[in-house]
Amino acid sequence: MTTENHIHNALYLPFNRSQWAELRESVPLTLDEPELANLRGINEKLSLTEVTDIYLPLSRLLNLIVGAKQKRGLVLNEFLGRKPPKRPYIISIAGSVAVGKSTTARILQALLSQWPEHPSVDLVTTDGFLYPLAELKRRGLLQRKGFPESYDMKMLVEFISNVKAGNEHVKSPLYSHITYDRITDSYQAIEQPDILIIEGLNVLQSGQDSAVGIQQPFVSDFVDFSIYVDAEEQLLKQWYIDRFLQFRGGAFSDENSYFHHYANLADKDAKTIAANIWDSINGPNLKLNIEPTRDRAHLILQKGDDHLMSQVLLRK
Questions:
Q1: Residue 7: what pLDDT?
Q2: Dist CA 70 CA 271 (whole Å)
């Protein structure tokens, strides 16, 4: 048995697909095929079966956890004789580029918002907190975009701190995958939701990742429940290449796209460039910064071929 399996066995309860699917109980499927189509990520073969087997049990678990916390808060505030502040339950979703974090986040948002106990569920991605392109260039970080140092962590931590405090009208910056840059004239307003889902590469990072002696807050300090979407690196690299090929006829074909110069590449050239980008940027970031945070998650969703979940690991 590998060291990694020893760690998983010590920290997590493992479930195969059928074991996990049984935990759905009687939770109804509230999404139909057209709604599901809107939630799919690029190149993901997500089916209603995947939603039923994997995401409905997860939404049931999260509903029970959120409900328990809400009840605990009511008891405490009744004891203290004060009106409870409206503070959201915060869920983070981490994982590699191309693993399907965004799809997982959107499905959970749709399912969790169907529960009457917490109808208001907002979703924020950390892409908007990347430094603007001009700043990345000034700092010499363009080839390290997605690495922890490419994010305005002060801005991100301030945002999530204000949301967690129950502040009204907290602004989240938006990001354009066309211009590959932060949008300057628009933002997302977060208005005291019941649940906030925050999705990004590095949302599981903590003080353990800092130099010795540096004390600063991290996104993970404000998170109530964390999820890591996992897959073997060879699958992730292939999914990234597949997505890059699809983008040629989609986002890259837009004349305003930062990657417009890739739009007319032949398949062979596109595969070579995508593989090089993975090997020089996304792969190293995965190994150095993202994967080491996996075993901090409360729940790990492990994917196999075709983006299908093969195992769910729930922290004991």
A1: 53
A2: 49
Tell me which H or E stretch contains 56. Answer: helix 56-80
Cα separation of 36 and 38, whole Å? Answer: 5
**What's the pLDDT score for residue 3?**
44
- Which parts of the chain have pLDDT scores under 50? 1-3, 6
pLDDT at 306: 85
CA gap 4, 54 in Å, rounded: 23
Q: Please tell me the predicted confidence (pLDDT) of residue 41.
A: 66
CA nearest 59: which of 10, 14, 110? 110
Per-residue model confidence (pLDDT) at position 9: 67
Angle at 203 between CA 314 and CA 240, to 5 degrees: 90
Q: Counting runs of H as helices and runs of E as strands, what totals does the chain give?
A: 11, 9
Q: Are 80 and 73 in contact (CB under 8 A)?
A: no
**What span, in angstroms and rounded, lies between the C-alpha atoms of 185 and 68?**
40
H-run or E-run covering 157? helix 153-164
Q: Residue 132 phi/psi, 5° resolution?
A: -55, 155
**For residue 30, what are the CA distances in angstroms to 39, 51, 55, 120?**
13, 10, 12, 16
pLDDT at 108: 94
